[in-house]
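Hi Y.,

Following your request, here is the sequence exactly as I used it, all 463 residues.
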Amino acid sequence: MEREVLIIDDDDSITWVVKKALEPLGYRVTSRPRLSSGLRAIREGSQLVLLDLVLPDGSGLDALREIKSSNPDAMVIMITAHGRMENTIAAMKEGAYDYIEKPFDLDELNISVEKAFRDMSMREELQKLKKTAVETEAPQIVGRSQKMLKVFKEIGRVASKDITVLISGESGTGKELVARAIHYNSPRQMGPFVAINSASIPKDLIEAELFGWERGAFTGAKEKRTGKIESANGGTLFLDEISEIDLNLQAKLLRFLQNKEFSPLGSNRVMKADARIIGATNKDLKDAVSNGLFREDLYYRFNVIEIKLPPLREHREDILPLAKHFLKEAQEKFETGLKELSKEAKDFLVKYDWPGNVRELENAIKRACVLSNGTIIEKRDLLLEETSSCSIKEFLEDKLKGYLKEMTKLENCNLYDTVISEVEKALIAIVLKETKGNQLKAAKTLGINRNTLRTKIKGYRIK
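Below is the corresponding structure, written out as tokens. Let me know if you'd prefer a different format.
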């Protein structure tokens, strides 16, 4: 780091003394006699400024505020002949590094300047280490399909804007990876990224995990504990499966989103935390609102921006690049040596429907890398169910073969109507179960009229 000192003082004798004291020690000293020219001489980055409190064209305290606002990395040592307590306190409150009275002792000046540069050097080293850590932690989302490029664009658009984001998609599509990508490409990247999965914590404990608690707040609370919101101060809090949060806690979460205030369990203290919230869900929050399970006002708070992640089966062109990425990770982590997928394995991966999405693909590849013999990973090493990769036509043909062989031996068995009605009945029952009895949504999923669906439900006596 260049050891550069800028003096802003209209007293030529002070400038002469400082130069005589610091230049032999290797410092490069420049000076400006007025605030206007001094402020223009301040450059970005680490720099030490010796600033007089009283100057012909303005107040040193006002200049201090402007310097710290425009260049927070600059170190400012105030120098003045007006050594009053209130001036000292005011300067330190505004961010001055030190405060030296005129006429000052040169040894004291040397010590203060040396300490300032040492602290600047340590700060720069810490920033480099943090940047390296951020680059190491920053997630790599693999994808070249149009659907994933759309997701990347949306991440780029929202990352720099300090707004609440909702990420939706099936389980295993990589919602936390997207949340991390937003965080590590935002101004908060040096702050913490804290994640909490609302579905994995008992409902009566989520509030304590979020807001923390005081000692004695409940049975077993022997020590005070910091909550996830406070831990995420200055960074990002990722709330996975927000649909699982109960209504009472939703009200408290809404309060935090509105004014950044919360109270730990067992405390009346109102605390503040500057944390950006990113929520995620694998359910339709609109349906949850309609069914009274999710607050409408909280839904609109979360749904400022929604990023929808496609299931893996809808962007199959990304399957092999993802598999290659996970295979490389597994080879490095488990030290298995170089391995590659056979053509049959690759073909199977592309055809498979991946109900568990990217997470299932990652687990399958890493498991196969560890368990397979030799350098080639075969289809059998993937340990995936063959039926999952079948088309609907292939699945039905396979299931009906044995049944039809016996039925065709009979006469007048009304085979066509029997099979069609049984398949239709099973299909409607499954879709209704998946849509939790929502007939309008089930009709849209099936591609039939709602009245037609009602007639069939009544005719098949589906409950």
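The mean pLDDT is 86.

Thanks again,
Q.
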